[in-house]
Design brief:
- The chain is mostly beta strands.
- The chain has two helices and twelve strands, in the order ααββββββββββββ.
- The strands form three sheets. A five-stranded antiparallel β-sheet has the order 4-1-12-6-9, with no helix packed on it. Strands 3, 5, 7, 8 and 10 form a five-stranded antiparallel β-sheet that branches. A two-stranded antiparallel ribbon has the order 2-11.
């Protein structure tokens, strides 16, 4: 029966003239097998002696290379130029430029540029800023909707004589691939609106 990983193995002390029996070979073989199986199968504990992170740090044995993790799925897009929105109650915004994109499939400036598409399941923080230059009376709003047209989040402001900045933030869980989100501009009591290049749309996986 091997001692590893419970305690160190102590071979018996032998002197000249002692008989060498089978345990002289079998015991170390058992220890070697236990060590190999423990580390190859992940069953051996690694927190003995000075192998803990706390002990290594206290002993001034710092890590030579910091661990590098890949960035989470994230994208932020914006308008390259102003756009005139129609008089309809809602207008889905196409975003023609990308500030950053950690996954190339999350947004395209050519194919469905209005969509932000998650590339893995999980919970996402989604935010948008719409800056409307129109000064007509009424209300201005922004909404985030998913691919089933369900509302993720929305915000609304009363129109003023200066640019109207609308911020909207929401959380959505994607439990299956194939969905996406869009940003919608809402206008109530106005004929047309002009959307500034300061408008942006972003999604970040938590």
């Amino acid at each position: 029966m091997p001692n590893f990983p419970t305690s160190p193995w102590s071979p018996p002390v032998r002197s000249a003239g002692n008989t060498i029996d089978a345990s002289f070979f079998n015991d170390p073989n058992d220890e070697i097998n236990a060590i190999e199986a423990g580390y190859l199968n992940g069953t051996a504990r690694l927190n003995s002696s000075g192998s803990t992170v706390a002990t290594l740090q206290a002993g001034a044995s710092t890590f030579s290379v910091r661990p590098v993790e890949p960035p989470p799925n994230a994208v932020k897009v914006f308008r390259q130029s102003t756009v005139t929105l129609g008089s309809s109650a809602e207008s889905t915004i196409s975003f023609t430029e990308q500030e950053f994109r950690t996954n190339s499939s999350m947004h395209s400036t050519g194919t469905n540029p209005e969509r932000l598409t998650p590339q893995s399941t999980g919970i996402y923080l989604i935010a948008a800023q719409l800056v409307v230059l129109s000064t007509e009376a009424g209300h201005r709003g922004a909404a985030i909707r998913d691919s089933s047209a369900s509302l993720v989040a929305s915000a609304q402001v009363t129109a003023s004589s200066r640019a109207n900045s609308i911020h909207v933030t929401g959380l959505k869980q994607f439990d299956a691939l194939g969905g996406y989100v869009v940003c919608v501009a809402e206008a109530v009591g106005a004929s047309t609106n002009s959307l500034s290049t300061q408008s942006w749309f972003a999604m970040y996986k938590l």
